[in-house]
Amino acid sequence: MTKILFFLTCRDKTGIELALEHDNESDHISICLLQDAVYNANKTEILIQDFIKKGKVYVGKEDVEKRGLKNYVHPEVKLLDYGEIIDLAIDNDNIINL
User: Fold this and answer.
1) How many domains does the chain fold into?
2) CA–CA distance from 18 to each of 4, 8, 72, 98 (Å)?
3) Are 46 and 73 in contact (CB under 8 A)?
């Protein structure tokens, strides 16, 4: 099993779509939304709802708080501080940064 982490930093949904399209069932896929990408963690966002069925979603806690989005984040999305994000990156085999 290969652990793959997608780091996404902009509001463009292409990175989420690419992570959804990853079709190797033996891989463990997760995404980490940072900077303006945290807007995509909204609980009404269909792509996030679809991705949660496939893998884990993490968001930068400071980025969410800075944008006043804490009450809008999907309940299954995990908020991480920067130290936890570094640990997450180290824990994965491959990182895709978009």
Assistant:
1) 1
2) 12, 11, 24, 10
3) no
Instruction: For residue 67, give its domain range.
Output: 3-97
User: 31-90, pLDDT tens digit by residue?
Assistant: 999 999 999 999 999 999 999 999 999 999 999 999 999 999 999 999 999 999 999 999
User: Reading across the β-sheet that carries 78-80, which strands appear in turn?
Assistant: 78-80, 56-60, 28-33, 3-8, 94-97
Q: What pLDDT is recorded for position 95? A: 96
CATH number, residue 26: 3.40.1260.10
Other beta carbons within 10 Å of 81 = 11
Residue type, 30: S
Q: Counting beta carbons within 10 angstroms of the beta carbon of residue 37, is it exposed (0 to 12), middle (13 to 18) or buried (19 or more)? A: buried
- Tell me if the pTM is above 0.70: yes
Tokens of 27: 């891989």
